[in-house]
Amino acid sequence: MKAKVLFFVMVCAAMHLSLMKAGAQEVNDLNAKRFCMPVSFHNQPVVMAEQEDEQPVTNESDEKKVLTVELTDGLTLANALGDDRYTVDSLIVKGFMPQSDFPVLYDLALWGRMTGLNMKHCKVEGDSIPSNAFFYNVQGNGKLYDEQTHEQLKQNTYYCLNYIKLPEELKTIGDSAFKHSYPLTRVLHLKGELELPEGLTDIGESAFGCHWSMSCHRMVGTLRFPSTVRRIGYGAFSGNWFNTIVLPDPDVEIGPFTFFASHKLREVVFPEGITRLADAMFKLSNFGDKEELVLPETIEELGIQTFALCNLKRVVLPTHLKKIPDGCFAQVPLKEINLPEGLEEIGDEAYVVYKESYSPPYGKYQMIDEITIPNSVHTIGRYAFYEQDFKTIHLPASLTQIGVRAFYKKDMQYNKPCEVYAYNPVPPTLIMDDEEDYDNIFRAFNENDWQDSEYLMRTLYVPEGARDAYMADRSWNLDYFKEIVEMTQAGIVETEKDCMADGEADIFDMNGRLIGKTMVNGQSIDTTELQRGIYIVRKGNASKKIVVK
C-alpha cells in the first residue's frame, strides 16, 4: 500500500528547499494535488508615504535628493539624469518617455538609491510598461555579472524602489513588470497603497506578484480595479499585503493564483453578478480573525484549490452550487462544513486534512462532530475528507460513487471513533486509479496496535434489508467496521432496550441540547417535525437514538 502521507512530507520539504535556492520557481502547479507549504511571516510596520501629484513618492526626509525630469525634444532619461543619477532618492518623470528608457529606471533601482518614482504625468511610449521592467531574470546561480568582463558585481542591497505612481494614461502593464525577485536581487520592494489608473485595460501575469514567503511586496489598504480593465493575468497580485480586495466586473478575465498568499487580507468585495472564482485565486491567504466568508448566490463555479490553505472558519456556499472542485478547501481549519442541497459532486481532496505531516499556516484544526452529505450528491472524490475528525457521517441515498480513502482516518493518535449512516441500499462504487493498490474508504482500526485494535469506524448503519449487500462488498464490510446494523424504514435505530411509555417525550440533538418535544405511541415515534439527522428521544429513564432520513 502506498505511503501517500510520506510522499506529501517529501514534497513539502522539496518545495521549501527549492524556494530557498537562486532561480527557484514559484509554487503554483495546479496538477500537484498537495498543499504542504511551510510558511513564516513577519509583522513589520509599513510606513505610508506622502503621494501628492507634484510631490516625490518617498517617506524619506527632506534632506534626501529629489529630482524632477521633464523629457522634451527627444531628451533621453539617461542624458537628463547625467552622471549624478545614482544619488537620486526620489524621481519625478514628466513628458514623453520611450520604452528604451525603462532600463535606466531599472538601473537606478538596482544600483542607485532611488526609493520613490512618480510617473503620473509621464506619457510612456505605447501607453505600456514593458514586461520585466523592474524584474531581474538572473543567471543560474542568482548572481550579477558584468556583461563585458563577466566578473561578479556587487549591487546596492540597502536601497530599492518602494513607492511608485503609475502614468495616468497607462493602458497595459506587462508580465512581471513589477514582480518581486528577492532574494535574488533587491530591485523593488513596493509599499503603501497602489492606485491603478482609469483607462488601464490589461494587467500581465505576475505583474505585481511575489514569492509566497515573507519576502514580498508590502502594498496595503484597498486594491481597486478601474472600470476599463479587461484582463488580470496569472498571479498578478500574489504575495501582497492588501487588506481589502474589490474584485472587478464579472466579465473581466481573471487568471489562476491572482491573489495567492495575500498575507493581510481581511475582506473581499464581490461584484454583482459574479459567476466564477478562478483556480487557486485566494490560496494560502490570511483572512485574520474573520469568522465567516459569505459567497454570493450568483457564483456557479469555484476553482481548483480556490481557498486551499486559507484560515477560514466558516464558508457560506451558494445554494445552487453543483460541485466543490478538487482541493477547494484543502487544509482549511473550518469549524463546520455546511453543504447546500442540490450539490452533486465533491472533488478529490476537497476538504482534506493532513494532520501529521502539515499544519495550516494560520490557526489550528477544529473538530467537526458531524457531516451530512446532501441527498443530491452522487460522487465523493478520492481523499475528499481525509483525516477530518467526524464523530458521525451521513451518506445519502443518492450517493453512487465514492473515492478511495474519502473518509480515511489514520489512527487513534489523531482521530476519534466514528459512526457511519449509509442510506443507499446499494453500496456506492469505489473510485480508484489503476496505480492505487488499496481499496478502502475508511480506516478500520488503530494500526499502531494490531493485537488490541480499536475500531475507528465503530458502526455502519444501512437501510433495512441492505446488510448482506454491504457485508459482501470488500470496501464496506466488517474489515472496516465493528458491526453493521440495519435501520427501519423510518430510519430509527433503537440503542436502549428499555421500554418507552406512550406519551410526550423530549428530543435532544447529539450535543445534548433540548430542541423540542415529540409523541411516542407504542414503538412509533413522531418525526414529522424533525430535519434529517441523529437525535436522542428521552422519556423518563428510557431513551432511544433515532436517525431521521
Q: Layout of helices and strands, plus pairs?
A:
Blueprint: H1 4-20, E1 66-71, H2 77-81, E2 90-97, H3 102-111, E3 116-118, E4 122-124, E5 128-129, E6 163-165, E7 172-173, E8 191-192, E9 202-203, E10 218-219, E11 222-223, E12 231-232, E13 244-246, E14 253-254, E15 267-269, E16 293-294, E17 315-316, E18 323-324, E19 345-346, E20 370-372, E21 379-380, E22 392-395, E23 401-403, E24 418-422, E25 429-431, E26 457-462, H4 467-472, E27 483-486, E28 503-508, E29 514-521, E30 524-525, E31 533-539, E32 542-548
Parallel strand pairs: 1-2, 2-3, 2-4, 3-6, 5-7, 7-9, 8-10, 9-12, 11-13, 12-14, 13-15, 16-17, 18-19, 19-21, 20-22, 21-23, 22-24, 23-25, 24-26, 26-27
Antiparallel strand pairs: 28-29, 28-31, 29-30, 31-32
| Average pLDDT figure | 78
Largest sheet: 5 strands, parallel
Oligomer: single chain
Could you estimate the helical fraction of the residues in percent? Answer: under 10%
Q: pLDDT under 50 segments (min length 5)?
A: 1-53, 58-62, 138-147, 444-453
How many helical stretches?
4
